Amino acid sequence: MVGERIAGRYELEEVVGHGGMSTVYKAHDSLLERNVALKVLHQQYNEDEDFVERFKREARSVAQLQHPNIVTVIDRGEENGRQYIVFEYIDGENLKELVVRKGRLDVRTALEIALEIAHGLSFAHEHGLVHRDVKPQNVLLNGDGGAKVTDFGIARSLDVERSVTQTGTVLGTSNYIAPEQASGQPVDAQTDVYSLGIVLYEMLTGELPFPGENFVAVAMKHIQEPSPSVLDARGDVPLRIAEMIDRALEKDPEQRFPTMDAFATEIEVNLAALDEVGDDAITMVVPAAQRLKQQPRRRDPVSRLPLFVGLLGALAIAAVVVGLLTLRGGGGQSPPVGARLSIAGVGAYDPYGDGTEHDDAAINTTDGNAATYWATEHYNSFRKAGVGLVVDAHGAVQVSRITVVTDTPGFTAEVRATNVQGGPTQLVSGRRVVSRTTRFAIRESTPKRFYIVWITKLPPDGSFAHVNEVRAFGTAQ
After folding, report:
1. Is 334 contained in some domain?
2. Given 29, 133, 151, 192, the catalytic residue
3. Are residues 65 and 144 in the same domain?
4. Whole-angstrom distance, CA of residue 434 vs CA of residue 62
5. Domain containing 102: what range?
């Protein structure tokens, strides 16, 4: 079609994107003397009413979204039986091309881009649309640092009961797909929160958290495997930023930021913290965490346009994914993920010492602020069997996972449990060298009320250890 004129005004100059459902051209609007991007539905789909309706719906949806961080729809029409949509043309690369070209981005750049994406998606959510395919290929950069979200082709209204796609159908790109979306369940604004969390993780680390050989393998990882901490791949990221990404990537949507606007607010707080300490201080991980103590934790109150995910291919893959989930006993439902449990740091466990160890600071480990912490004593020589931090689950609970966050990585720990504070304990996890964020899988055992992060060895280059945050997941009895 290059060289053709559409609607008597759009002269097709070159192909800039090609997907399973449509092709995108750079075109010149001879009427207004400007370049535009023109998306044309593939010929074989023009006879299918569902495909045509889906294409038209994209134009109607995005036409409502006049926002500086969303690519603008200019026109829509039909030419010789071919459906087309006209968008503003962004003369720059997409975010995926930037990450491939540069690798991991500096923290400030990553946060600034993520904030613009969040603003655009928040605006879409306020107008009743969830994107469902947030990925760096769908973020266009205009060359001046501005980011614009594009390709709302599989967007869905937040309040419709029926639409072209229904519950049980999987659409999206598996590297960025939320667990509930991968298992064919209903999606909402928190689905986009998860996907943006993956995008931010990739910008900061230059890699994906769940690599895999195919759609199904990656989708199952999103559903079943704990999300890795950004600190495991890049230790110079400030703790609060790592905590923010951890929250965005929670398996349970209700444990994520409640809205995209809340996610954007937390990004802004982290950018403000960078302004206070300066970019050069980011590499000083522990000092950066200490400085963040002064920052109150805010509670929740492209020259190439991206390719579009082919609908037929996605539907075929969806059948495989949903079928696989059914075979695994899920019946199309996401396998149960332990809920976040309410716990409180209540003291230290020091049976081989004087019985106390900064007990009054234990509450800092469950206050939701990764900049505060409980600390061991300073030891010239750590010769005793161990010392522990005690958290109270307020009753007997079956814990499946304990997550420990620290700004003094390198110490060795395990998790023990008891129903009597200060009483005999039972080992319920393996022993691990603790990184900045470490997840302990808890063995099945009788439900317990008190769980102890039991430190058996201090960091090789330190005389003390911090526990900044402890989170528990499981089932209340």
Report:
1. no
2. 133
3. no
4. 46
5. 95-327
Quote the pTM value.
0.63
Alpha helix ranges (H) inside 127-228: 179-182, 189-205, 215-224
Task: Tell me whether residue 333 is in a domain.
Answer: no
What CATH number does residue 204 fall under?
1.10.510.10
pLDDT in tens, the chain (477 residues): 788 899 999 999 998 877 667 788 999 999 999 999 998 888 777 777 877 887 777 777 778 788 989 998 888 888 888 888 899 999 888 999 999 999 999 999 999 999 999 999 999 999 888 888 899 988 999 877 689 998 875 445 444 333 333 333 444 567 999 999 888 888 899 999 999 999 999 999 999 999 888 888 888 899 988 888 998 889 889 999 999 999 999 999 999 999 999 999 999 999 999 887 655 544 433 333 333 333 333 333 333 333 333 333 444 444 444 444 443 434 433 334 468 899 999 999 998 888 899 999 999 999 988 889 999 999 988 888 899 999 999 988 999 999 999 999 999 999 999 988 887 888 999 899 999 888 998 987 778 999 999 999 999 888 999 999 999 998 876
Distance, C-alpha 212 to centroid of its chain: 17
Q: Rounded to the nearest 5°, which phi and psi values hold at 117? A: -60, -45
Q: How are beta strands 437-441 and 387-405 bridged, if at all?
A: antiparallel
Answer yes or no: 133 catalytic.
yes
CATH number at residue 379: 2.60.120.260
Tokens of 63: 């036409």
